[in-house]
Amino acid sequence: MSSIPAFDDTTQSVIYIPYQGLQKNDSDGVEYDLSPSESYRPFQERDIPNGYELRMKVYRAAWTKCLDRVQAIIRDLHEPVVDAVIRHVHNAYKDILPGLPYCEMPVISVTAGPSLLHEITTRLDPDNDGSEDSSMEASPPSSSHPDTFVTHLFPADRPNIMACMKSLVGGFVDRSPDGLEQPKRKPSTSLAPYDIELLEAWYDAVRRAHEPGTPPQLVVLLHDFEQFDPVVIQDLFYICSLHVPSLPLIFILSLSSPPTPSPSYLHLTYPRATLALLRVENFAVPSGPGVLDDILTKTMFDVGFEQDIVIGPTVIDSLSDFFTRHNSSLDALITILHLAHLKHFDDPLTVFVHDDGNLSSLLLQPTSFPFLDHLLTRISAPPASSSVAPSPTHSTAWLNQSVPFLLASIDEARTGFRTKMRKTKVALGLMKRVKEFMLRQGWRSADERSQVELMFEALKGRLGRDGRYLGTMVKKLPAAKLRSVLEDMHTFFQNMPSHVRRDEEPARTKIVAWISELASESESSRSGFVVQLAGMVGGWLTNYFQDNLTSLEECRLWDIWYTGNTPFPSEMINPNIRASIVSGLLHPLDYVNLDDVRQQQPELWELPDTSILFKRYLDSGKMINVYDWFESFAVVLESQKRHRKRSKLNGNNSKTISRKGKGKQRQVDDVMDEDEGENEEDEKWKMEVQARFMRSLHELDYLGFIKHTGRKADHVLRTVFDIAD
Asked: 153 - beta bridge partners?
């Protein structure tokens, strides 16, 4: 497959240019490639050899594990909607209201992202993947008769009704009617590729191939439905409605706006004459904060799933804010989790996320000594918790540590962190279970925090007060309710995975003993024994929550497996494009020459042409005379030309000579003036200046900095003001 991007493909909205490495020339004139690991090493001074590649390998494994878990949860959320859509497609031409003057065309509107559409397409037509465009080459023939034929229409390459009908008809007729061999047609005897009669003839062959069974349905999936031209869609619906039910066409509309507000997008955009032809059914996937709570709970705080990287409270807060205020799509949620993983693996120590026995020989190399020094410092650091005192030999223990000892210490810290995280999950789950029980018993609480907020507080270690309050409420329960809450807690521990239940065996044993002690007490009893036992249960709950719901930063080397309070790179999700463009125009050399640290601001003539024109743009008023703008631009280019010639005559390409020179410098200037008057091709230079001005002007126009006015042909309007240099 060619690696050259298809720049001429107008159907591509985004073109990815893979990084191939930079070509540089060293002092010997030898060319070499700059690999990604050399171009991006944020902690190069304390990294190990090939640290970038090793961390990326660990990152891919960790992110794949997290992504598979999130996608499995999303599939479970989508499953009821997908089943309902599939069921409606199969029954679209069976449950028809009798007595209608004409047959309505089934239309299904789905408010969802690409993942749901892919699941629907896969279920409807497994042999023809929905990720491909209908205008592409047909898939290989299937060995069995399909129940549904699916084609796809995209708004980018369907500008008119002819192209739209050609794509719709071609998406079906290019496939085999019987699923065994491709159709062969003579161009001289075939109908036009956009004629729906061609589709009718093809479907007659399909109907005969499926006899005596039920012929398949024809499903048309319109992606990004709001982007289609409404006039084109009106004509499309009208033409297709004339051929149903002989052509069992079913349209699935992919909408980004929910159908619940009245009127919906369909009713706002299309006239009543078009809507009367359709029988619309609306489907929407679950959305809102509840979906975010469900995904994060089952990903981070599910005792049956152990993630490699634990997302910290800062990332959770940023994720919740972005999801509720800006973009509530599941793709945005996955993107934020992806960026959090990428950001976390900048740290060289994250190479120890997994247990890798092959690092021992690498750490013995001399180039790894700075990394070992940093690792030894971290391991020898005193405990983060103020309640844990360092050992008496802490100040001298580092003298006897070797590389195998360091690796064993990392394995011990990894096991300790995962055990601590597992206990945090169990404690938070138990707290939610007890709180739900108390609410069912009529207990009223002013706590309206969501699951995401509870996760945030749990990772911060701030749920101690909640645990004490729950323990106090349990102490006041009578015998029957105390027995019920103990049985509920016992069920909670009993339903855990075997390895977690084994670790929580002491707690489960206590609960079983308390349940047996309450067996002889009456339901409404508040005897001294019940009060004493309730006090024991409440006190145990309080201590259990306080011991397990503490901050994960108390663990050794926690930042290897936990993002903590590291700021989330929100500028990568919601960048300030305007500020970035203005900054790039004002200070272009800061972006071009990354290694060139300048003590002073560059002169105006040293800047690129577009930046020079933009600087003059900032000096103007609301309306800019284009001729005056050109003259000021030409003056700067004349200065640029003189400086470059002076540098060339002096044999110095990097330094410029001041205008205040005397003696020999004055003679150089005079020689330059004579050469310019005699040898310079003025006409050629003027054409170059005009071309450079037009190119820079068009770039500013493309970026939206100027606006043309019909009042004065030689003036443009300035659109951006109040820019701080």
From this structure: 222
Q: Which long-range contacts (CB under 8 A, 24 or more apart) does 573-581 make?
A: 573/322, 573/332, 573/335, 573/336, 573/339, 574/322, 574/326, 581/703
> 706-708 and 249-255 as β-strands: parallel, antiparallel, unpaired?
unpaired
Tell which of 265, 286, 307 closes a domain. Answer: 286
Contacts of residue 271, defined as CB under 8 A and 6 or more positions apart, other chains included, come to 234
In a domain, 127, yes or no: yes
Can you name the residues that pair with 716 across neighbouring β-strands?
Answer: 624, 708
Task: Indicate the burial class of 617 (C-beta count within 10 angstroms; 0-12, 13-18, 19 or more).
Answer: buried
Q: How far is 505 from 178, CA to CA, in rounded Å?
A: 61
pLDDT in tens, 350-403: 999 998 777 888 888 888 888 888 888 888 776 555 555 555 555 555 556 678
Question: Kind and range of the H or E element at 717?
Answer: strand 715-718
Q: Is residue 391 part of a domain?
A: no
| C-alpha span between 463 and 461 (Å, rounded) | 6
Whether residue 245 has a cis bond before it, omega within 30° of 0: yes
Q: What is the pLDDT of residues 679-690, one digit of tens each?
A: 557 888 889 999
- Cα 311 to the center of its chain, rounded Å: 15
- In the listed set 260, 286, 312, which residue is the last one of a domain according to the structure? 286
Q: What's the CA dihedral at 460, 464, 469, 475 to 10 degrees?
A: 140
pLDDT of residue 429: 93
Query: Residue 35's CB: how many other CB atoms inside 10 A?
Result: 13
State the Cα–Cα distance between residues 137 and 254, nearest whole angstrom.
Answer: 23
Q: At 217, which CATH number?
A: 3.40.50.300
Residue 12 token pair? 């591509």
Distance (Å, whole) CA 142 – CA 666: 86
Which position has the higher pLDDT, 140 or 647?
A: 647
Rounded to 10 degrees, what is the CA torsion of 496, 502, 503, 509? 90
62, part of any domain: no
Q: Which of 246, 270, 241 is nearest to 102 (CA)?
A: 241
Neighbouring C-beta atoms of residue 176, cutoff 10 Å: 18
CB atoms inside a 10 Å sphere around CB 145: 16
Residue 547 lies in a domain: no
- Cβ neighbours of 696 (radius 10 Å): 20
Domain encompassing residue 115: 78-286
Distance in angstroms (rounded) separating the CA atoms of residues 271 and 255: 18
Give the sheet arrangement for strand 278-284, strand by strand: 148-153, 217-222, 249-255, 105-111, 278-284
| Total domain count, the chain | 2
